[in-house]
TrEMBL record, chain A:
Subunit comment: Composed of 13 different subunits. Subunits NuoA, H, J, K, L, M, N constitute the membrane sector of the complex.
Gene Ontology MF term list: NADH dehydrogenase (ubiquinone) activity; quinone binding
One GO CC term, this protein: plasma membrane
The protein's enzyme class: translocase
Protein name according to UniProt: NADH-quinone oxidoreductase subunit J
Locations listed in the record: Cell membrane
Function: NDH-1 shuttles electrons from NADH, via FMN and iron-sulfur (Fe-S) centers, to quinones in the respiratory chain. Couples the redox reaction to proton translocation (for every two electrons transferred, four hydrogen ions are translocated across the cytoplasmic membrane), and thus conserves the redox energy in a proton gradient.
Automatic annotation (TrEMBL), chain B:
Gene field: nuoL
Primary location group: membrane
Name the UniProt record assigns to this protein: NADH-quinone oxidoreductase subunit L
Domain NADH-Ubiquinone oxidoreductase (complex I) chain 5 N-terminal: 70-120
Keyword Transcription regulation: no
Protein location: Endomembrane system; Membrane
Organism: Acetobacter garciniae
GO molecular function, one term: NADH dehydrogenase activity
GO cellular component terms listed in the entry, alphabetical order: endomembrane system; membrane
Membrane-spanning intervals of the chain: 6-24, 31-56, 76-104, 116-136, 142-161, 182-200, 212-230, 251-269, 281-302, 309-331, 337-356, 377-400, 420-442, 463-482, 509-530, 635-653
Automatic annotation (TrEMBL), chain C:
Organism field: Acetobacter garciniae
Residue spans crossing the bilayer: 24-42, 54-71, 77-100
Catalysed conversion reaction: a quinone + NADH + 5 H(+)(in) = a quinol + NAD(+) + 4 H(+)(out)
Gene it is expressed from: nuoK
Name of this protein: NADH-quinone oxidoreductase subunit K
Known partners and oligomeric status: NDH-1 is composed of 14 different subunits. Subunits NuoA, H, J, K, L, M, N constitute the membrane sector of the complex.
Amino acid sequence: MHAPIPHALGLLCAATTLVGAMMVITRKVVVHAVLYLVVTLLALAVVLALLGAPFAAALEVIIYAGAIMVLFVFVVMMLNLGQADSARESEWMRPRAWLGPALLAALLCAELLYALPSLLAPLPPPFAGPATETPLPPAPPLFRLGVHDVGLSLFGPYVLMVELVSFLLLAGLVSAFHIGRRRAEER
Amino acid sequence: MAAFLIPLAVLCPLVASIILFTCARHLSTRGVGVVACGGVGLSALCCVILAAWLLARPVTEVLHVDLWTWMRAGGFSAHIAFMLDRISLLMILVVTIVGGLIHIYAMSYMRTDPALARFFACMTLFVAAMLVLVLASDLLCLFIGWEGVGLCSYLLIGFWHDNPANTAAARKAFYLTRIGDVAFLCALLLLATATGSLRIASEVGAAESGQVSHMVVNAATLCMVVAAFAKSAQIPFQAWLPDAMAGPTPTSALIHAATMVTAGVYLLARLHGLFALAPAVQALVAVMGVLTLLMAACTALVQSDLKRILAWSTISQLGYMYLALGCGIWQGALFHLMTHAFFKALLFLAAGSIILRAGHEQDIFRMNGLGRAMPGVTAAFVAGASALAGLPLVGAGFYSKEMILSGLWPARFMLAGHDIPAGPVLWGLGLLGAFLTALYIFRAVFVVFEGDSRTDPTGRTPAGMGIPLACLAVMSVFGGMVEMPDTLAPIHLFTAFLGLSPPQAHEPAWLVLAGALAPLSGLLAAWVLWGRTPRIMREMPGQASIIPLAGSTPRATDALYGLVFVRPLRVLLWFVRHDVAAYCLGRTGRLTRLASDRLELARRGMIGLVAGRTVMLTREGSILLGRMQDGRVRWYAAWIAAGLCAALATMVLP
Amino acid sequence: MPPLPPPPVASQALWAPALSFNESLVLAAVLFCIGLAGVLARRNLMFMLMSLDIMLNAAALVFVAAGARWHDAAGQVMFLMILALAAVETAVGLAIILCLHARGRPTLDGDSNNLLQG
């Protein structure tokens, strides 16, 4: 039922995302990792757009791949990293250090993939209420949800959440400022 | 117009408080006092106008003011809403008028204090919070005021925070009332889940029409009783109020005598419809009230600190109110609340003047014979004392106590289908309480004012302190005459004010006579013991040995708290830190000292083995737990991921 | 239990199903695990932060996909929230990194900053 060309594009983007993420976590030099992360995020933005969420895709590009990544680049520039740092990174990244995390992550991944069908299936009888006894109908085609729909629900039922997020942003701003200020005084 | 005045009455003290908190530096000492008294005075003016407006209307008239919807979530909604009926009208009049007089007094009393602005800011904030509490028509809105008065109480007890004892007293008060706040919140949650709204009227209506299950009503009222007891320092929460006397005296008068501690009484009287559906809880309230009444009166009898005597007396009088509430005489409780606010504020303010003039001396045995040096204050104190003791005809307390006592006589409890005629017993105990009340307060009067002058009071009581004393003295003497027993005169202004019909059952005359004789005999006993023979009783150092149990009550309650709350925690800590085996063995040894040697040996061996194993397990476990908490972020993340794996595995694997 | 999918609305343009719901869930799961491995394996705080961002993106992808699946804008609302969360997290994290770097810990070793240990 998939249209072949968009489907291939989606798979390509997904693969790009995964490869980019793999590259991010295995680089020795921070700048390389940041660039790979930008690639990952851009590919993810395409995936989002293909999922029918153009607004989310735009935000992903503008805020994530744009603003947040610029922050990273700035910090990397301020840290003044050199040859010694990448040498230390390669010393820290011996295969032994990867063994435990890789095992744990693989285990989790396997569990998640194993759980996917059961999550999508209707709940087994002991947990199923009267409303869930009808089996889940086959997945319909995905819908496009534009900025109009998002805006309506953002400032309708979720307006309290917007307020809370503004509190969170304020708290982050204050704490970042505080940490930076203490550093300036100690100099 | 009236709907506009209610928020204004709350807003005036609030604005005054904000001004004092923010612009204290730009105000002179006089300016601070004027702002504070002006805020409370304007509020009192609003309340008087409201009273005139409401009294001209039918009794059932209730003024509702909905300011805004606070929150709406699912089927639940809470509002910032005020309601003015006769009960809240009484409360706002008491709060603003007594509060205004105390503010005027405090202007002179605290004149030299460097932190005057902070003091008045807290006091006005307290008045605002108290008005919110008594005006709220939504229980969640009431909870704002409830917490606000607790906060102000904490701030004002620890007002002189240079002394660690004062901050410790403030913390004690805060923690103990916090237990009650949690209970109150539990009650709110129970009621909110049962009815979906916290409107007082709809709560009571829903409970009366049977929409709320019996279980929920009982549990919610029990939680509210715990909350009220913690706020009013009733058994078992009584320990905080005497320590709260560490605050300035006007604070003690306003918060810890006249208004805040009666918030619990107000809550129970406001919800009397709900409590009528839970007779077991009512019986509990009555029993605890009478116990508190007697215990606190006995304790007051052996205290030597003037303010502490008054604090214990407050606890004891609150016990009267709870006794009345428990027997369903809520109008009597409200009447006693009103007269108590008058005479207890008067007593505290007079005590403050005495203490100030006697050079900050609070021990009554070191300030004999003050009567001649300060006749005005003496007259005020004696007026307050006779009102507290309930001397017939001349004290406001007589009429309110009479209303409670005559209502107690026919009281019956319906417990589990049994009809228990507890009335006469409670009446007798209440009468004993009245006797004790007269005894301890006149003991203080005779010891302080009679005898040879030992301290030389300095200065004069300024007019700013004298005028409130005079006003309160008049109110304590004549304030009770609005309601009289039928035997004396058929005046029932108070019950008419509340919109109730006067009691139909005609109480026998000997009930009134007994109620009049009990305080008189107390006065006589006090005169015999402390007034007539000053030398013997006054020089006796170990007064506490008269009633050893009562003398040790404060210490005993502290020890009880230590045993119930602090000790288990300490033991837990100790278990974690020390060798448990030795402790267990020591305990076992003590327990089995009387048993035979063999048995003891056997027990030692067995318990030692068990304890040893436990210690080993605990140690290993603590080392493992310590390893987990090594402060390395990556390990924390790994533990979280491992937990996620385990949780997912239990979910998806069959 | 999720609500039943709504019937297709005529006025709503059907989007070519480039990626199905299941495929995006698989993508999100793998992405999340890659990020987790990065957080656990790397000692450099910069890399840990980047891995955290990958994990957050994986979570956001699930929300968007679910929103598209059940035709509910709440998914994208949650995406916005996650975006704000990530911004705050990155800002505070980078501030801490700068602070540590200025205080003479230029290695940015995540294991050495365990002053909070119990």
